[in-house]
Amino acid sequence: MNLRQIFDLSLVKRRDQPGLEWGGSVYTFGELDARSNRIAHALRARGLTQGDRLCVYLANRIEFIDLFLAAIKLGAIFVPVNILYRERELSHIRADAEPKLFVTEAELPALIAEAESQPDTLESLPLEGDAPAALVYTSGTTGTSKGAILTHNNFSANAMNLTGCWQITDRDRFLLALPLFHVHALGNGVHCWLVSGCRMRLLERFEHQTAAAVFLDFKPTLFFGVPTVYVRLLETALDAAREIGARMRLFVSGSAPLPAHVLEEFREKFGHTILERYGMTETLMNISNPYAGARRPGSVGMPLPGVSVRIDESTGELLLKGPNVFTGYWKREDATREAFVDGWFKTGDIATRSADGYYTLHGRRSDLIISGGFNIYPREIEEFLMEQPEVAEAAVVGEPDRVRGEIPIAYLAPRGICDCSVLEARCREKLASFKIPRRFELVETLPRNALGKVQKHLLARASQS
Ligand code: MCA
Ligand code: AMP
Q: Is residue 136 domain-resident?
């Protein structure tokens, strides 16, 4: 089956039921179906056909969902683009994905106007489940990001697993505040919503100042967050936390490690044990704590149905196989070959397994930094810094941070006079905000080993000497 046929469980079968709350209005599933059909006609009129890429560079809003559904219905490949990206990052995606259309906020009104006169219905395509549905860019270790090709089957295997394992039904009320351009919100959030037929309230973004009020107003039973979101929710007043917890069925965390003390403080305050799970853009969800059994602090749980997991004995790296695993990187046969060994996907995550089958992650083989749930490859920032004339050498490392999990710090060996505030301003202009080093430390030289490789673990010491 393709995703349209699966989404029809809600878009067609529950057409009169409320499906989405957005911007103070409620939309039925039938209205969402008609909106996306009209947008699909408008996109087709602009030349978008099966297999073409549709880039969408928008903050969370109902039109994001309309465009995603329209792409699925036309058999086009949906390419969500991080709204925090700046021109440098965007131009890479534009060149690599070669989209037929690139939708931004500025171009949206014209597209909506073109959709207004279009029919509410759209014929279905004979599309197989192994057709590509989305191209999702992940920060590459080489500095430029690679597009992971995710098929209709990848998304449906993931959504069926999660709705089943987490017991999501049309009785749920789902609050979604994560950015739709990542698979956490798109692959888990939007898909579980449409498969289960529950009522979803979509927020433009998570704002910790107003979060408790939104929970109290919407009264959700289901919520997905990254650890930073749960750290922020710990600021909620106790009586409000109790009230929120009393209505809630399930809080899920993922995208970065959830510190055990956060899980425990949250349980104290909200009366719920957060369910932690583990996923990747390339594989969607792999391992999850059980809904019914023990949700262990610090562990990501057990492999989801259909997912096979193995730990490489020599490196400790977690390897995966399953219907959720992507087919490869867009136009990157070399990178795709390197990502697999004997048909197993190499996650890059180091893991151990307990005697009773629970997995625990112990960091990454690469020096990936995860800040607020956003991934940062130090190499990309280092390359940018080294392009600056006053920088001779640069190394970026993650430093522990109570709220964001980690924050990027830059160590620089300057060439002549180096004004860090000027450098920071240049970073802000060219890079997504979460990638901007939170501190710049000047050092004479970077510590290197005999092979010339920077010894990042010695950097803090180098800056003090
Ligand atoms: C953050 N910022 C944003 C957004 N989120 N700007 C616009 N739209 C957004 N959606 C920027 C802010 O402008 C600010 O920039 C900085 O990020 C921190 O924002 P702040 O208000 O202080 O928020 P916070 O309380 O620290 O919370 C941040 C957040 C955000 C809401 C938790 O980091 C977030 O939404 N993270 C989720 C990312 C995610 O979904 N990752 C999944 C990828 P400045 O600092 O310049 O002022 S991993 C994945 O998909 C895999 C498969 C998986 O396993 O799930
Ligand atoms: P991304 O490339 O954005 O899809 O991020 C995937 C990476 O996020 C994984 O390889 C892990 O390193 C990390 N990740 C996701 N979920 C968890 C989790 N529950 N605990 C620790 N790390 C996680």
A: yes
